[in-house]
Amino acid sequence: MATLTFNPARIRTPRLQSHKPISSSLSLSKPNKIVYPSSHFSTNPQISQPRLSRSRLNSVSESPTSSPTEKPSASALTDDEEEYGDPTAEVSYLDPEIDRESISEWELDFCSRPILDIRGKKIWELVVCDSTLSLQYTKYFPNNVINSITLKDAIVSISDDLGVPLPQKIRFFRSQMQTIITRAGRELGIKPVPSKRCLSLLLWLEERYETVYMRHPGFQKGSKPLLSLDNPFPMDLPENLFGEKWAFVQLPFSAVQEEVSSLRTRFTFGASLDLDLLGIEIDDKTLIPGLAVASSRAIPLAAWMNGLEVCSVEADTSRAGLILSVGISTRYIYATYKKTPATTQEAEAWEAAKKSCGGLHFLAIQESLDSDDCVGFWLLLDLPPPPV
């Protein structure tokens, strides 16, 4: 492995452009120094935390689930009940204006909820949506029927009931359910994708916790999630993902939006987010923090990264390094730096800038830190785990 050096610290707000990818072999090296002065990070406490747009959430009441107490009468409905509907009802919704054939990827959660049924056992729930919330579906299950057969039958029922084709891919974020989801998906010819990039689903679960689960007559306050999310110790980075140099950078939000647009119009490696759907409102001039990684083999590096479900980048000041999270339970030591008061302050400032943007940040891969071109661009959102 080559010994690496870094460019001197300096302020940059690069204007990134797309670059058409081609295939090539890999020969990459590992970064090892922090290079961005903290005093130039923009923080904007006025930016709200991500939250799903209420206009995109729809529900159709169906048969209620069993509960340990009687449902309230219509005359006893509170303002919340009038606004959000019956918390024991299920959801089955398809946007009538959507092209049904265009929904090729679903986001799915199959897990227990902090709700007891008449037997005193936790209710399980299947929650399914697509990334745009054009498809929304929920169904409750007793805890004694949780298996891949139940899930497979439910997936087929969603397809039949809503008149949509079976998806090509299903994203899910709980490692504990990987066996059941994988088995059900493969029997239906659906590719299971373990990923924390199912952000619409994660934010919808947070929304349902407040507007549905907490109002359910069987709700158990203080109940901890049965299947908590993994946060494993970070591993060494595979050699094919090494870069040669890196730097903390920042881009005006308007430039970030242009980069995201280029992902849809050109052959660029990366991934975007639907910021309107996620309820993220940011002024065009606000600087968004990011990480620029440079390599003489930038195109193959971006190609390898594109095969991962990149979730977030975290500056870990205790380990004096950067942590790259991919998939659902994989964390890599992406880079390290010499720990000093100055580098710690810089890393803390980058994390503070990310927090002030509601967790929004980006990863850019370039041939050089001086380059105006970008061969890979991932828009990332660092979210806390859902409350269920």
From TrEMBL:
<dbReference type="Pfam" id="PF06485">
    <property type="entry name" value="Tab2-like_N"/>
</dbReference>
<feature type="compositionally biased region" description="Polar residues">
    <location>
        <begin position="39"/>
        <end position="58"/>
    </location>
</feature>
<dbReference type="InterPro" id="IPR009472">
    <property type="entry name" value="Tab2-like"/>
</dbReference>
<dbReference type="Pfam" id="PF20429">
    <property type="entry name" value="Tab2-like_C"/>
</dbReference>
<feature type="compositionally biased region" description="Low complexity">
    <location>
        <begin position="59"/>
        <end position="76"/>
    </location>
</feature>
<dbReference type="GO" id="GO:0003723">
    <property type="term" value="F:RNA binding"/>
</dbReference>
<feature type="domain" description="RNA-binding protein Tab2-like N-terminal">
    <location>
        <begin position="106"/>
        <end position="208"/>
    </location>
</feature>
<dbReference type="InterPro" id="IPR046761">
    <property type="entry name" value="Tab2-like_C"/>
</dbReference>
<feature type="domain" description="RNA-binding protein Tab2/Atab2 C-terminal">
    <location>
        <begin position="225"/>
        <end position="380"/>
    </location>
</feature>
<dbReference type="InterPro" id="IPR046760">
    <property type="entry name" value="Tab2-like_N"/>
</dbReference>
<feature type="region of interest" description="Disordered">
    <location>
        <begin position="1"/>
        <end position="91"/>
    </location>
</feature>
<protein>
    <recommendedName>
        <fullName>Protein TAB2 homolog, chloroplastic</fullName>
    </recommendedName>
</protein>
